[in-house]
Structures are given as structure tokens and as C-alpha cells.
Specification:
The chain contains 10 helices and 17 strands. It is an alpha/beta fold. It has 2 domains: about 5-160 and about 325-355, Quinone Oxidoreductase, Chain A, domain 1, CATH 3.90.180; about 160-300, Rossmann fold. Helix 3 crosses helix 4 (about 185-200) and helix 3 packs across helix 9 (about 305-320). Belongs to the zinc-containing alcohol dehydrogenase family. Keywords: Metal-binding, Oxidoreductase, Zinc. InterPro entries: ADH-like_C, ADH-like_N, ER, GroES-like_sf, NAD(P)-bd_dom_sf. Its cofactor is Zn(2+).
């Protein structure tokens, strides 16, 4: 194997990605070496490039990889083999000793790298997927069904895992048949409305952008939302009350970092409703304390789904034809990916074909 690979890296915050050649990472005894076929770009990648997550530079970005295993470490367990089609989640290498690891082990008899205080975060603080190869932790690597292409699989490693994890927070208290909404129909929201419909919820897609509202309709017929609303419309509140028989929504997932949109969403909940905000604004969220207390509203944090839940999600995707709206780019276009992402006409997800 040629020991050099193509990669894009962040050399300086707020500057375009630089294309380069780097050494292929060495596969350790507990690692999987993955050949990346597709890697996604999402809003968090923009925040990384802006320096919101401090990291040692240079660093290879992107936390949405899909590819094939090309080498298995000597001590890896779990039946992984060369040639397996996989996706890789961004959190990895739990220490097993910190408070987060001890809590997870006590509650579920196994560590969960999502909550490890010393976890590595590929594409955020450690090298990620904008390269021909990357190292993966077997504990946070998932099998990619044959029905799911690499290009569709890549966004599922963050956008899909984020949407799916948020819906699990709602699912524990909201029954199928009740009305829930997804606010902000981009890469995450587009998947969230499809998951919600598959789970049997009456689903409302909400966005103040025509491009977002159109995207909500560009899914298979059986996965389309029951109602699409312009949140900026004068009768937006009335439309929500009408579809909920005056009760308000049972749950809302907010897929934007807009503080205004998140505050507005809280007001659309009925009694005992659940809000799951996913955006990470630079400033802090602001919520109406009276609405929370007197209507007993719940705000639930949601990181991303666990490895086990992502495996289940992938089977649902394969069986139901759930898909992202994907714009494909070639490796040489990586330096322009931010400009494309920020274009107001941009819809869905940007995915780089790495090989």
C-alpha cells in the first residue's frame, strides 16, 4: 500500500481547507483502518472551521465517514473483517476510568464513548474523514447495509444519528398517532421528518425558508409530513392548533441554532409537551419559565444516538427507503465546500466522494 494519502486539513481557523498529502495512519492493535469512500459536511464542520471547538492544528475535518475496512487490529473483537462496509461515529476510544465511563458501566454494564471525558472526537478535535483513510474504534463503528450507498450512509453518521437520537427522547413519552413537529428542514430535519413518519407520528415540517419547505416534500410519499408550515406566516400558530385540535404539539425537534426559532417552538407545545433542541448557538438558549412551569413542559438534551441505536436506525433506513437529499462533490472541490454550504439555495447535505 502506498503510505501516503490525499487529505484536506484545517491549517488556520476561518481559512479554506488546504489539500495535501499525509501519511496513512498506522492501524493499532485495537483499531480498524477504514478506506473512506464518502464523507459528509454539516453545520458542525462550519463551527469547527470557525474555531468553536478548540483543537490542535493542522487537523483533518469531517465526522461523517462511510467506507470499507482495509485492516483489523490484532486485538479487535466483534467479528470485523476486511471488506466490511461501515460507517463511523465521531466519538471514540473511551478511557473506561472517568466519571462518565463509570456511570455508563454502572447503568448498562458497558462504556459509552459519547460520555467519556477523555473521548476522541474525529473531525472535531482529532483527525476525521476528509482523507482517503482514517482510524476507527470498533465500539463506535457500525455495519452499513448493502441497500445503503456510501454517499447516503455518510450523512447518517451525524445528521441521521442526531435526528434518530432526538426522536428516541420523544418516543419514550409520546405515543404514535400524536402530532410532533420538526423545525428547520435541512440535512438533519429532512431525515427527522422521515423517521417521525415511519414511527407513526402525525408530522409537521416547519421552516421559514421556501427551500426548506420544498425539501420537506421531496421524500417518498409514505414518508411525507402531514403538514408543512411557514413559521413566519401570520397564521402559523393557528395551523398548528388546527392539526392538533387546539391542544398544541406533543413534541418538537428543533434542527436549527436560531435562538428565536427555539423560543417560538416552546410556545407551540401542548401541556406536558417535549422540546428537543439540537442547534448549538454561540449565545445561550432562552426559554419562557412560566410556560415551562404552568404547562409542565420538558426540554430534553440530545447528543447523538448510541452505536446500538444507530445500528437499528440503519435497518429502518434500508427497509423504508429513507434518504438524504445529497449534493455530491469530488475531492478537489473540498476547498469550496463552505461557500457552497452557505449559498442560500443549498438544500440537504453536501457529500464528498473520497474514492
Amino acid at each position: 500500500m502506498n503510505r501516503l494519502m490525499r487529505a484536506a486539513q484545517i491549517v488556520e481557523y476561518e481559512k479554506p481547507y488546504e489539500l495535501c498529502e499525509r501519511a496513512i495512519p498506522i492501524c493499532g492493535d485495537t483499531d480498524l483502518l477504514i478506506e473512506i469512500h464518502a464523507a459528509g459536511f454539516c453545520h458542525s464542520d462550519l463551527q469547527v472551521l470557525q474555531g468553536q471547538f478548540a483543537a490542535s492544528l493542522p487537523m483533518v475535518p469531517s465526522h461523517e465517514p462511510a467506507g470499507k475496512i482495509v485492516q483489523v487490529g490484532a486485538q479487535v473483537r466483534g467479528g470485523w473483517k476486511v471488506g466490511d462496509r461501515v460507517g463511523v461515529l465521531n466519538f471514540k476510544n473511551a478511557c473506561g476510568d472517568c466519571v462518565g465511563c463509570r456511570q455508563c458501566t454502572r447503568r448498562s454494564s458497558r462504556t459509552d464513548p459519547r460520555f467519556c471525558e477523555k473521548r476522541e472526537m474525529a473531525g472535531f478535535k482529532h483527525d476525521g474523514a476528509f482523507a482517503n483513510f482514517m482510524l476507527a474504534d470498533p465500539e463506535t463503528t457500525v455495519h452499513l447495509p448493502d441497500e445503503v450507498s456510501f454517499e447516503q450512509g455518510a450523512p447518517l453518521m451525524c445528521a441521521g444519528a442526531t435526528a434518530w437520537g432526538a426522536l428516541q427522547k420523544i418516543r419514550s413519552d409520546v405515543k404514535p398517532g400524536e402530532a410532533i413537529a420538526v423545525v428547520g428542514i435541512g440535512g438533519v430535519g429532512h431525515l427527522a421528518i422521515q423517521f417521525a413518519k415511519q414511527m407513526g407520528y402525525r408530522t409537521v415540517a416547519i421552516d421559514n425558508r421556501p427551500v426548506g419547505r420544498q425539501l420537506a416534500l421531496e421524500v417518498s410519499e409514505h414518508l411525507r409530513p402531514d403538514l408543512v408550515i411557514d413559521s413566519a406566516a401570520n397564521n402559523a400558530d393557528e395551523q398548528i392548533l388546527k392539526i392538533t385540535s387546539g391542544e398544541g404539539l406533543a413534541g418538537i425537534i428543533v434542527c436549527t441554532d436560531s435562538i428565536q426559532a427555539t423560543s417560538w417552538s416552546l410556545q407551540q407545545l401542548g401541556n406536558k409537551g417535549i422540546l428537543v433542541p439540537l442547534g448549538l448557538p454561540k449565545d445561550k438558549w432562552q426559554f419562557d419559565s412560566e410556560a415551562m412551569v404552568f404547562r409542565e413542559l420538558t426540554i430534553k438534551g440530545s447528543y447523538v444516538a448510541s452505536t446500538k441505536d444507530v445500528e437499528s436506525m440503519l435497518q429502518i433506513v434500508a427497509e423504508n427507503g429513507i434518504s438524504s437529499h445529497v449534493t455530491l462533490l469530488d475531492f478537489d472541490q473540498i476547498p469550496s465546500v463552505v461557500e457552497m454550504y452557505l449559498d442560500k439555495s443549498m438544500r440537504g447535505r453536501l457529500v464528498i466522494r473520497m474514492s
